[in-house]
Every structure is written in C-alpha cells, then in structure tokens.
Write a structure and sequence with these properties.
CATH topology of chain A: SH3 type barrels
CATH class of chain A: Mainly Beta
Number of domains of chain A: 1
Strand content of chain B: under 5%
Distance between the termini of chain B: 63 Å
CATH architecture of chain A: Roll
GO cellular component, one term (chain B): NatC complex
Shape of chain A: globular
Low-confidence stretches of chain B: 1-30
Mean pLDDT of chain A: 70
Structural class of chain A: alpha+beta
Family (chain B): Belongs to the MAK10 family.
Largest sheet of chain B: 2 strands, antiparallel
Main location (chain B): cytoplasm
Order of helices and strands of chain B: HEHEHEHHHHHHHHHHHHHHHHHHHHEE
Oligomer: heterodimer
Order of helices and strands of chain A: HEEEEEEEH
Protein name (chain B): Probable MAK10 Glucose-repressible protein
InterPro entries (chain B): NAA35-like_N (IPR057983), Naa35_N (IPR007244), TPR_NAA35 (IPR057982)
Helix content of chain A: 10-25%
Number of strands of chain A: 7
Number of strands of chain B: 5
Shape of chain B: globular
Low-confidence stretches of chain A: 48-78, 152-158
Radius of gyration of chain A: 17 Å
Helix content of chain B: 55-70%
Distance between the termini of chain A: 12 Å
Strand order of the largest sheet of chain A: 6-5-2-1-7
Radius of gyration of chain B: 32 Å
Chain lengths: 158, 759
C-alpha cells in the first residue's frame, strides 16, 4: 500500500462502507488475544506516512486467536480508534493446572464492560457479525474460502 | 476525536443533572447487564473485515469521524480505553496471568484463618464507610471462589472440590464465616438500596453482577455457622486461646447476621438488645486479633478483571483495624439508639429525635441512617403503627388547632353536603393531601448526609412557601364553616384579625427550616469569616420573626382556651390539649429568643472585629459583595415572607455606623447574657417540656454545648472590650482573632471567635 492518492470516488465508497457497519456487532481482537464484542459506534481515520509493518510474533498461541501481531511504528498509528458500545470482553481461560489428555474445549470467559474505545495500534483483527441468510452469494463464497484456508493452514497473515 | 459539533456537547452538558445523586456510575444499566451473547450461534457468522476496514479507514481525511448519528462526543469521554493500564482492568502485563495462582486446597494455620477473618471485617467496614465491594470484600480470593459461579446451596460452596469429603476444620470455619459475611452484606445492601441515599457520596450498592447469596436461605447459613461452632468446640487439637478467638468470630458473625435480618422489623422489642449483644463481642474480637496471622496472598486486586464494571481498576482499600472497629462499635451503638425512634410520644419529639440523631458526631453510618428511614416511612406507615394523618393532626393540635372542630374525626362521618362539618372535613382532607408530603419531606431531608440536608432544605422551603399560600386560601374558605369570629382591636389594626391556623402552621415550619439552613451554613463552613456578622444578623432576624409569629399563634390559642373554659361541659382531656399547645408555643418562643439573643450578640461582635480590622476579607478579584450576597441568599430569594432584605439595607443594619464600638460591645454583652439565661432555663426543662421525649440526653447535651458556646462568647466580648478600652482612641487593640473551624468549637452552629493577646 502506498501513500493514499486523493480519490473522491474511493473516499465516498470508503465512507459509505464504514457507515454501513455502524450499529452492527463487531468482534475486535486485540494484541493480547482478547476479543471484544460490541456495537460499532464510531471510528476515525488513520494518519499513516507509511504502511505499518506487521509480522506475527513467535509466541505459540491456542486456536482460534493465533494472530498476534507486533506493531513497529506504533506512534504513527494512534488515530484509528474504534468505539464499541455495550461491549463484552472474551478471553481464553488460563490453562488447566493438571495436563489433560486429548483435545479439550474451553469456553471463553466473558464479562460486561459497556462503552469502550480500542486504539488502532492494538487491533489485530476486525470481524463483523452477519446473518448467514442475508449474505450475498459472493460474500458467502468469500467467507467459506476463508474458513477453508483457516482450516488447512491454521492461520493467516495479513 | 474532533469535528463532532459543539451543539451536541452543549446539549449534553445542559442535560446533565448534578442533582441526580442516585445515578449509578458503576453500571450502564441500573440492574444487571444482559447475559453475554454466545459466540457460536446458528445463522450468525463472523466475517473477517480487518483489511477492508483498514483500507476504508485510510481513505478518510485526518481527523474525520464516521459515527452513529445518535452517538455523541460527550458519551465517548466515558469510554474505557482498552490496553490502557489505568483504564482497562483486563490489561495484563507481559507474562502476567489472568488469575492468581492460589491454591485453595492448601491447609491454613488456625492463626491464618483469624488473620483472614479480621481482614475481611476491615473490608466489610470499609464498604460500610462508602467504598465499593470491588475494592474491599470482593478482593478476597476465598469470597470470589464462593460467589463465582453463584451457588444455590451450601454444598456448592466448597473452596476446593476435593473438600466435599474431607474438609479441614480451619477451612470450614473460614467458609462458614464468609457465608455469614456475604449474607450480612446482602441484608445491608438491600436495606440501603430501598431507602434514599446518595450513591458514591454515601455508599456503593453495586454488586458488580454478583449475587450476594440470594439463592441460599438465611436459616441454612445460620445453621451452618451454628454447626461449625459446635464442630470447633469438639475439636481437641487447637490451642485454647486460638479456639476461643475462632469461636468468638463465628458467634459474632452469627449474631451480626441475625441482627441485620431482624433489624428490618419495626415491631421487635428485642432489637436494642440484639445490637448491644453484638457490640459486646467487639472488645474480645479486637483484643484477640493479635493472635491472627495475615495472609496477603489471599487478597488480590486482579479479581476486578472478572467483575462487571465500567470503571477502571482501582487499588484495594486499606482500612486500619482500629478504624474498622471504631466504625463497627459506633454502628452498633447508633443502631441501638435509632430503634428508640419506634416509641412515639408526640410529633415534635419525633422531629427532635430525628434531627438530633442525625447531628450525632460523627454522623451515623449510612446503613443506620437508612434503617431510621425505614422505621420512619416504610410502606407509608409512620413508625409502623401511625398513619400520616395521625402525625399531622397531632402536630396541628399541638400548635395552632388545639381541640379544634377542624380536627374532629367525627366530621368525616357527615355526608350531607350542606352541613358545615362535611365541608370542613373535605377541606381538611385537601389540606392534608397537600401538606403531608411537605411535612414528611422535612423528615426525609434530615435523614440525609449533612451537606445534603442543607441542600434539601433549600428546596423544601420553596415548597413550604407555596404551601403557606395554598393554606391561606383554605383558611379563608374554612372561616365560613367554622364561623370564626375575628379579633377586632382598633389599637392593632382597623381590619378584623383572623387566626389563619393552617397557613400559620406552614409559616412556622418554613421559618424553622430557614433558620436551619443558615445554621447548617455555619456548620458546613459555607460562609467566609467576613460574612459571619451578616449571616448571624440574618439568623437573629429569622428567629425574631418566628418569635413574633409564635406570639400571634399564642394569642389565638389563649382565646380559644378561655372560651373553652367557660364551657361547663369541657373535659379535662380537652383542657390538656390547650395546655399542651400553649406549652409548646412557650417552649418554641423561649428557644427562638435564646437563638436571636445569641445570634445578635455574635453579629455585633463580628461587626466590631471587622471594624477593628481583626477580621479581613480575603482578596476576591472576581466577585463583589452584592454578587456574593445574591448567591448566599439564593435559597431565600424566592420566599415571599419574610421578604429578603436588600443588600444595602442589610449592610446598614449589620455595620451600624452610627453606633460606637463600645456601645456595640455593650449591646453584644447584654444580648449574650440574655441568651445565656434563656439557655439555662431551657437546660432545666423536662423531656416533656422540651418536646424531646426519647432523646432527652442528646437534647440536653446539645443545649449544654450551646450554653458553653454562649458563655465563651461573653468572655470573648469582654476581652475585646477590655482591649479596645486599653488601646485608647486611635491606638489599635493589642489582640488577634482566630476563628475555630467547625467541629472544633463548642457547637457547630455557633462560631465563636477566639481572642488572643499580642504583645
């Protein structure tokens, strides 16, 4: 990605896209693997002289929150904040003290937080909740492809 | 964030209601938040839009916002910033784990159990003092284990699942104590929540979406405590002193639990005993705490991460053992006194009781104050036995309408519309419907914290001013049916004089409240030293107005008394009603005259000190005297009678430029002497004569404190006089003046300056 070229059409499109997300439930994953689920209320622009260099950290992390990114030039990216209302925080529970055989399913622990602002520098993933029935065929195809990829590789890079 | 338009902000600020004290800043909802949505549910899928979102956001201009039209910048200020250590209670340090690695299976020494129990007691008292549970009791890992997930039976409350078969006695004792503690908190929290109080300011009732053992029956917990006590008694391994200390803690908890459960009843005669029994545990509880060994690892600030809370993480509150015991001891003592309100003597004694109870130093704790409110008002039945009408009629009979046909309950039985008795009954009912709320509001207001009492009174006097006007209309209408004959006395007025009983009554209470507002102003240090002369002048003006008004009421009471005595059928009971009303009027007059004498003396004294430049006005670059006067008198500016005195006039009567300093001091000395005599007479009155039945001791202490302040004033006046005389005509007196802060003087309502000679 290069320096954004002023393009009124693209800008209008971007605005309308972001507006279409308002009020929807977003799931935002942060660098510490927590996820926040809340209603999208507000965001602002990113002030970026150059694109951020993102690379995964070597820390092995349990599924599905494997994507832990490290942001290099954090100072430049402070302005993409996302505000969510009526937010719940989800986190992976601590690993059990006694090792157990085989695969285990752990529920994420959650708690209510209310109105939060997530600074852009800590965001590793943004998801939007959609009703499966309301997806366009193209969206559905894309979603399934992503699922497949996640299943086979076990993760993806940005 | 910017570009959100100032209109929205100013609108929000305009909508902000600072008076709304009951708002809960801890929760977005007053009740529990909704359950967390499931992450996997059929039909809903999460689409990864990280890239799309980022690209779109990059297209925006710098500083441009995309926002929900109903979302305001003002709201966003309240958002918790994620990953900010100070705001985000869920933020972990690198390598830090979410939960504490605490082993609940570890056996604790009995000394450590004592230590944890005593720490929990400190936390409990810290909560009573106004700190949130999240920073006090909820920081205990054992309590956390007990409450999460919420248990529905005692069997589910083991600290470790391995304990179901084999629980060490020590942990069983701790568990029993914790169960009792949480259930106690449940009762206290429910009581406070039901009454009027100020969240954050007085108390935090928020339980962070944790249930305080609502699912477990009171009796089960009580029994469990009892059984544990028996188990402890059977144990033979513990050293005797430790055993005794643990036993005392279990019994204390059972007693505390029992007392708060019973405290809600308004009929129980044993309540006083319950509280005193509880208090009796304290000395040994306190002295045996040295046996304990603290376990700091069993408390953690991290638990806040699991609590539903929209506020940033805060540190654990540390309240010393001494402060905790002090608070608990006072709580027991005050609660035992509060119960005595349930014995009703007369309406005036009731008000005196509440007023003096609230003035106790330090002020009774929130729980006790809400108990008092409960006793007074629960279910709109006063003290559990009296109707509001009963109290109101008692009060009217004991002031303006002794043995009056207007208060005759038989009037209610008359259904013939043209019968004057029916008309009287209808109008009195209208009056009661209007006045009952205002009357109860006085009592309700004085149940709040000290600052709120003054603030509340400032609102209620406006209501009483209206009540007085409304009652005046009713008085005029009632005259037609009562056939009241006016007093015609050409020496006083050419117009006939009617008694106006209902509006007289309202005026009396309005004046009383206005006096309280000024007096509370002294207590709360609202006024600067250079304003004291003016405010004491205003107090004496109000008290004098009340005294004159009482004079008028007495005139009419005496007239109806004289008329009744001529009636051969009058019973002794009826005569007593007159005597009672007249006795109250006399008492209140005496009290008013002591107040205006004392206030007058202080006003003159402060004027003199101002003249001698011993009290200087602080620099006030942004205000002037007129503006400040306007602000000070704001509560009174809407009052029709007595009219607010314009600033220029007030300055003239306070400063008294035509009087010499010596004359002023002479007048002050005489006035203080008069007040002292009045207070001495008052201090000799019986509980009945002083209308303080049920609280005579507090009342006497109060009067004696006034008396001391008055004597001290006389001494100060004398020393100033001596210094002025010694200084000669143009020399300066060799003294300096100190104004003691509130609570340091003899009485909070009387600010007496201290004169110190300087070389």
């Amino acid at each position: 990605m290069a320096e954004p070229i002023p393009n009124p059409e693209a800008k209008a499109q971007a605005e309308s896209y972001l507006h279409s997300l308002l009020g929807k439930n977003l799931r935002i994953t942060t660098t510490d693997t927590r996820m926040f689920l809340g209603q999208f209320k507000c965001t602002d622009s990113v002030r970026l002289p150059s694109p951020p260099l993102l690379y995964p950290t070597p820390l092995p992390l349990p599924m599905p929150l494997q994507l832990l990114f490290h942001v290099t030039n954090a100072n430049d990216q402070k302005d993409q904040n996302i505000i969510l209302s009526q937010t719940f925080e989800y986190r992976l529970p601590p690993p059990p003290k006694t090792p157990q055989e085989g695969t285990i399913t752990q529920d994420l622990t959650s708690r209510y937080l209310g109105l939060i602002v997530v600074p852009g520098e800590y965001i590793t993933k943004i998801e939007v909740e959609e009703f499966e029935s309301q997806l366009t065929p193209a969206q559905k195809e894309k979603y399934l492809a992503a699922q497949r990829q996640e299943g086979s590789i076990g993760g993806e890079a940005a | 964030m910017s570009g959100n338009g100032f209109d929205a902000i100013s609108q929000d600020i305009a909508n902000l209601d600072i008076n709304d004290g009951a708002r809960d800043p801890f929760a977005m909802w007053d009740t529990a938040p909704p359950p967390a949505p499931k992450l996997k549910s059929k039909g809903v899928i999460a689409m990864d839009i990280t890239e799309q979102f980022g690209n779109a956001a990059r297209q925006l201009d710098v500083g441009q916002l995309v926002k929900d039209p109903y979302f305001t910048l003002f709201e966003s200020v309240g958002a918790l910033e994620i990953m900010d250590r100070k705001m985000d209670s869920g933020c972990l340090e690198p390598g830090e784990t979410m939960e504490d690695q605490y082993d609940f299976n570890q056996e604790l020494l009995p000394e450590e159990i004592i230590g944890i129990i005593d720490q929990l007691l400190c936390h409990e008292m810290a909560w009573h003092m106004g700190h949130p549970l999240a920073q006090t009791i909820f920081t205990s890992l054992y309590i956390d284990k007990l409450l999460s997930p919420s248990p529905i039976s005692i069997q589910q409350t083991h600290f470790d699942s391995r304990h179901s078969f084999d629980e060490p006695l020590t942990l069983r004792i701790l568990r029993a104590y914790c169960l009792g503690l949480i259930k106690t908190c449940f009762y206290v929290n429910s009581r406070v929540k039901t009454e009027h109080f100020y969240e954050e300011e007085d108390f935090v009732t928020h339980t962070f979406n944790r249930s305080l053992l609502e699912g477990i029956e009171h009796n089960d917990i009580f029994q469990f405590l009892d059984e544990t006590t028996k188990l402890l008694a059977e144990s033979e391994t513990l050293p005797l002193d430790i055993k005794r200390a643990l036993d005392c803690r279990l019994q204390f908890r059972a007693q505390f639990l029992n007392t708060v459960e019973l405290a809600d009843s308004r009929t129980s005669d044993s309540l006083v005993k319950q509280w005193t029994t509880l208090g009796d545990f304290l000395p040994y509880l306190n002295s045996s705490s040295k046996l304990g060994k603290s376990v700091p690892t069993s408390f953690s600030v991290k638990i806040q991460r699991k609590l539903a809370s929209t506020v940033p993480p805060r540190p654990i509150v540390q309240v010393s053992q001494e402060a905790a015991f002090d608070h608990l001891e006072r709580l027991c003592r005050d609660a035992a006194v509060a119960v005595e309100v349930l014995t009703y003597y007369d309406s005036h004694s009731l008000m005196t009781f509440v007023l003096l109870f609230q003035a106790r130093k330090p002020q009774p704790s929130v729980y006790v104050r809400t108990l008092l409110q409960h006793y007074l008002f629960a279910d709109m039945v006063i003290l559990g036995t009296k109707s509001i009408r009963h109290i109101l009629d008692d009060d009217l009979a004991a002031t303006v309408l002794p043995n009056d046909q207007l208060l005759d309950r038989d009037n209610d039985e008359i259904e013939v519309p043209n019968d004057p008795r029916h008309q009287m009954s209808v109008r009195m009912e209208t009056f009661r419907a209007r006045a009952a709320g205002s009357y109860l509001d006085i009592l309700r207001t004085i149940c709040q914290n000290r600052c709120r009492i003054r603030r509340g009174l400032c609102h209620t006097i406006a209501d009483w001013d209206n009540l007085q006007l409304d009652s005046e209309e009713l008085d005029v209408e009632l005259r037609v049916f009562t056939g009241e004959k006016p007093i015609v006395d050409p020496e006083i007025s050419t117009d006939p004089i009617y008694s106006f009983p209902l509006s007289s009554w309202a005026y009396f209470y309005k004046l009383k409240q206005m006096e309280w507002i000024v007096q509370m102003g002294f207590e709360l240090e609202t006024y600067q030293p250079d304003e004291l002369a003016g405010m004491y002048w205003y107090l004496q003006y109000l008290a004098k107005t009340r005294s004159r008004h009482l004079e008028r009421i007495r005139g009419f009471d005496m007239r109806s008394f004289a008329a009744a005595r001529k009636n051969p059928k009058a019973t002794a009971d009826k005569m007593r009603a007159y005597l009672n009303a007249i006795s109250f009027i006399n008492f209140s007059t005496m009290e008013a005259s002591a107040t205006y004498g004392f206030a007058g003396a202080l006003s003159c004294l402060f004027t003199v000190l101002g003249r001698l430049s011993l009290i200087k006005a602080p620099p006030r670059p942004y205000s002037d005297d007129t503006m400040r006067y306007e602000v000070r008198m704001k509560p009174f500016s809407c009052i029709g009678l007595p009219e607010l005195i314009p600033f220029d006039e007030l300055t003239k009567v306070v400063v008294q430029p035509e009087e010499s300093t010596i004359d002023l001091l002479k007048f002050a000395a005489e006035s203080a002497m008069g007040a002292k005599k009045g207070l001495e007479v008052l201090s000799k009155l019986s509980a009945k004569g002083a209308y303080c039945q049920g609280s005579h001791d507090s009342w006497l202490n109060n009067i004696k404190a006034c008396l001391k302040a008055c004597i001290f004033t006389s001494i100060t006046i004398a020393s100033v006089k001596k210094a002025v005389e010694a200084a000669g005509k143009d020399g300066k007196p060799k003294i300096k003046v100190e104004i003691p802060p509130s609570e340091k003087g003899y009485h909070d309502w009387w600010v007496v300056p201290k004169v110190i000679p300087v070389p």
